[in-house]
Fold this protein.
Amino acid sequence: MPDSPAFQIAKGFDEWFGYLDQQHAHNYYTGHLWENQGEVLLPENWGNQKRVYTHDLFTKRGLGFLDRHRNDPFFLYLAFTIPHANNEAVHYAEHGMEVPSDAPYSDKPWPAVERAFAAMVNRLDESVGKVLASLKANGIDNRTLVIFASDNGPHHEGKHDPAFFHSSGPLRGIKRDLYEGGIRVPFLARWPGKIQAGRVSDQLLAFWDFLRTAVELTGSRMPAGLDGISMMPALLGKPQRNHEYLYWEFYEGGFKQAVRQGDWKAVRLKIGAIPELYNLKDDLGETRNVASQNPAKAAELARLMDQAHVDSADWPVR
């Protein structure tokens, strides 16, 4: 059964704790979670009680994992979900930014949803701090690579307005957009003695590079057929082989595509349409479509979109 806990275990993790599906993961006060092949009941949250916040539970479990494995080689994937909204809560609550308290922003003259959003971000920051403190307390911080990243740009869910805190910064778009505001995300790495503190890199990479990087990091055998490029040289500040191009496609709300090749970025919002073209070096905010001035480059990136796309019966283009 694809959604069973046993199936999740088969993905290669020795142990795991969390949700089984995306919609369930919206609920920060769920009445149950899963641990390995068994269900974990949270009666403290039954009957609309809100006494156990799952994010705090994940932090506690992550810290316990570090304590248990401080003398072992380990890989911890701590997939925090905040500040994602409880999208379903908007049907019965004031907003979907579910958090135990809006402290330390309770006295801010902001809308309630934005105080709660800021409190979620603050809670995430505190949890990451606890992880780093645990590594230090266990004497392993100087030999542990820590990577922090996000899966997409700022969201417009749970009645939160991403413009309130100017969350996209200079970038255009938000989550579900293929403009930079939707797909360019934070990527921070800490590895004392290996990665120079405070160094900023303009290296272009994608999440599909992570597995190859991890395989090289651990000295394991590289499986055949993996996408991506190992980014170990870039992490260590050394010359890095780059992608010929990066490709994205997205189906929700209609099929969309994007390609980035060096500083050039093309976005196609409808199959077969002439793509928009941007030079990110001069126009990071993607405000000037220069396809008409650079028809050859626009056509080249359109060909890359066609080349990279693979038809799927599960995800038909329409």
Observations:
- The mean pLDDT is 94.
- The longest helix spans residues 112-137.
